[in-house]
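Work Package 3 (structural annotation) set out to generate three-dimensional models for the target panel prioritized at the project kickoff. During this period the team completed the workflow that converts sequence records into discrete structure tokens, so that structures can be stored uniformly alongside our sequence database. As a representative example, we reproduce one entry of 393 residues exactly as it appears in the project archive.
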Amino acid sequence: MSEQENQPLPKVLIVDDSRMVRASLVKLIRGRFEFREEADGEAGWQALLVDPSIQLVLSDIGMPQLDGYGLLQRIRASKVSRIQELPVIVISGEEDDAVRERARQLGANDFITKGIGATELLARLDSLTRLAQTRRELEESRAALAKQSPVDPVSGLVTESYMNWRGEQELALARRHHADLSAMLVEIDRYDQLITTYGAHVAQLVGRKLSGILATRVRKEDTVTQIAPSQFVVLSPSTDLAGICAFALRMQQAMEKLVMTYREDRIRISVTIGVASSSVDEAQSVSELIGMAVKRAQAGRQAGGNRVVGDQGEVTQDAVDRLLRQVVSIDQLLGQIRAGGGAELDAQLPAAVAALMPLLQLIEARLGCGIPLDRLSNYNSASGTGAQGTQKA
């Protein structure tokens, strides 16, 4: 991972009048979080005003100058949204229900005792920093939508609402021209484990890496969006089942070979991909098409992950090769006809009709020569085939 070393760790503000308590907390979080120490609530408040990199506050209650209750009140009453929405964990020397209840009413997010272990503390810090990050990203996404921007400012990909709008247009176009719209759901395997082992910021970097790979591998007419921290959707117009399966398999194999480094650890990344095709799955909407891809990715994850799953189960290279061989070649058909081929070509006629349908529609629109398009369409549908449009990305 080339950018991790420059990626700042989440910063925690530790406010406690005991130097020993601060030192013990620093020891527990060092390497996973940046930290800033202050000895009383007033100094902690001043730190919040001047340091926008602070993402979480750990505060004692009993302190000079300004106690933990006063600090919490100032934070929640702040007119600066960055400060007002900060997660706050109250440090308590004992299990005191009255202290916890008052702190909860003032807006504390969580409570810890001074003898907490490293695993529990890191889990709580990770959970709250992820929640805060999600909130910030949501607000930024809402701001982007308010400005009618199709691009999410966090991921750099199109927004989910734009993808749905664009997808419905592509699906309608595919129906008119007897073509296909395909979708794939790409999910990072063991994402929660990445967070637990390396922290939320590293898991986010993995997501950004996958986002960048997808953005460079798809065609200009494809649409890519992030629907969850570990999940991406790709919509591919004029791409049939064979094409989307081949594309998904290449993506899965490329990620399987990828090794990212963080500090001294080598992190192996894999993805599970679910694929769906509007013609094969007879999807009536983009949400239904994506829903099928999501269910297939879930099935792949339950089977162990690091695989591609389609309507017939796991997709292998042999299966993709068989599908690609079924894609009709008009040139090959014409060559076989010139060579005297006859009845053996009947099985390929439905695919040929599907492939030629856009051309036949154009000829009829320009010349009005009476091509029986309805009859040909019915013949194509009755034969159970759809237009072939192999994904070339």
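The radius of gyration is 28 Å.
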